[in-house]
Amino acid sequence: MASHSMIKSEERTGLLRNTKILIVEDIDSMRYLLQYTLERIVGLSVSGLASGVAEARRSAMRERPDLVLLDEILPGESSYDFLKELVEQKLPVVLLTGIEKPEHALPAGALGRIVKPNGRSLEKDVDRLQKSLRLLAPMLFEG
What is the pLDDT of residue 20? Predict the structure, then answer.
């Protein structure tokens, strides 16, 4: 399998600071696709992967990530209740959605939404996620 080199983010949107992200996504293949895609962005590291709220809660307490990417729909405990907990802990949260153009209101406390990668083009997914993060969480970027 060919390895993909890191996408040089500074060429497009400014270098990302050393940033830890917690990914909360219940579908295994999507969780790993998100990790693989996000780790192609220079300066970003995935500090935790969680398939549900209980696991994410433990990881957030242990790792204190700079940003949480939270799937809007999770089995078991409500994503929105967990969002409130994260906001109370002063952890920034961006919601993950599979809907291309979501029309439902953004819940209080969320910085915004990012459409999950489709896996068809790694470079396009990396570029789109990076631009979305820069727009929704500019405090994570230098300059």
Answer: 94
